[in-house]
Amino acid sequence: MNPVERALRSLDRAQQHRTPSAVVVGVVKKYGDDRGGLLAALITYYGFVALIPLLLLLSTVLGFVLHAHPGAQRAVVGSALADFPIIGDQLRQNVHSVQGSGLALAIGLLGLLYGALGIAQVLQHAMAEVWNVPGVRRPGYWPRLARSLLLFATLATGLLLATAAATLIGTALAGSAARIGALVLSALINTALCLACFRNLTPAEVPTRALMPGCAIAGPLFTVLQAFGALLVTHQLRHATAVYGFFATVIGLLSWLYLAAQVTLYAAETNVVLHRRLWPRSLVQPPLTGPDEEVLGAVARQEERRPEQHVDVAFTDEIAQPEDDPRPPGTRDGDSSGG
Q1: Rounded CA gap, 257 and 194, in Å?
Q2: Comparing 241 with 10, which gets the higher pLDDT?
Q3: For residue 252, is it within any domain?
Q4: Which residue of 53, 187, 203, 256 has the fewest CB atoms within a 10 Å radius of its CB?
Q5: In angstroms, what CA-CA distances link 298 with 204, 293, 306?
């Protein structure tokens, strides 16, 4: 064993024997096993494409619901746009309600809703991947559509609550006390909203209490993204703005959405790891730990697509070697699993 491998195995043993570090490693490895980076990129893409349709839909619906209260309508729409760093002002100036005849308006709203459903669908797909739900057990189109509509209703309710809470804080307090109170209240509302959304997106067999740890982490992190996202993204784009001009704002918005997608996925992975006790995970293999085998088995079984298809996974102590590999058994490397 060379010195580098010896040091890595010592580090591996140390993290496996300490629960906090073992849980953190378990979450990070589960994120990698589920191809979390690709899922985050997919969520970012659909979130970017669905952003304008969602804001148009929100503005139009509020135009009907709050037609007698234009100030309240502007406050709600303004609070939604304030969550998007850098590009929020541009959106506020250019997003207006859809107007026209009743029939044209209905058709336009249906088109906007259909265009915005992509983000809800991909979030459901991401949660199914995180929880390793076999394809044969995933819901069909109509149940997914119902969940998507419920998700939009939940987000709209959370937006109204956040606006009302911010208004109340601003009226009752002033100065730094108002800012601190707004941040604390925003963190609580974001945590509750995250829990409601996770409950809607997660398979029904997962108990609600299993979703609380990740939401308790994600809620405050979303508040940090909303409050300081502009500073983070501006720091990354301080040179790009001079080169790309307005396109840098698009890059900034994509960066912010990607951070939000990663927070969502890591929160979901935390729930899975804690609920299934998927730690300790090994950094250097072989050998595989019990949670290593459980995760790899679940990843393989989630590929089941038909009721008549059944995937079995087996792990052996001896490492498999291709038939044309001339090396003797003692020099084999790699891992073996079969199904």
Answers
A1: 16
A2: 10
A3: yes
A4: 203
A5: 18, 8, 16
Tokens of 96: 């207006």
Contact 55, 80 (CB under 8 A): yes
* E strand segments, the chain: 314-315, 337-338
- Of 32, 9, 41, nearest in space to 273 by CA: 32
End-to-end alpha-carbon separation of the chain, Å?
32
pLDDT tens digits, residue range 50-59? 877 777 776 6
Mean pLDDT of the chain: 80
Q: Which of 299, 221, 226 is nearest to 264 (CA)?
A: 221
DSSP 236-276: HTTTHHHHHTTHHHHHHHHHHHHHHHHHHHHHHHHHHHHHH
Residue that wins the pLDDT comparison between 98 and 52: 52
Determine the structural domain holding residue 253 and report its residue range.
35-276
SS3 207: coil
Neighbours of 229 (CB within 10 A): 23
CA atoms of 181 and 20, how far apart (whole Å): 31
* DSSP count for the chain of H helices, then E strands: 12, 2
The answer to whether residue 175 is domain-embedded is: yes
Question: pTM for the complete prediction?
Answer: 0.82
Structure tokens at 92: 């506020």
Query: Would 82 be classed as within a structural domain?
Result: yes
What confidence tens digit (pLDDT) does each residue in 198-251 have? 999 998 889 999 999 999 999 999 988 887 765 666 665 555 555 555 676 677
Confidence of residue 173 (pLDDT cuts 50, 70, 90): low
Write the DSSP symbol of residue 86: T
CA distance 176 to 181: 8
Higher pLDDT, 98 or 138: 138
Mean pLDDT of all residues in 250-265 = 88
Give the span between the Cα atoms of 113 and 58, in whole angstroms.
Answer: 10
**Cα 311 to Cα 87: distance, rounded to the nearest angstrom:** 47
Tell me: pLDDT of 268 over 50. yes
Query: What distance in Å separates the CA atoms of residue 85 and residue 178, rounded to the nearest whole number?
Result: 21
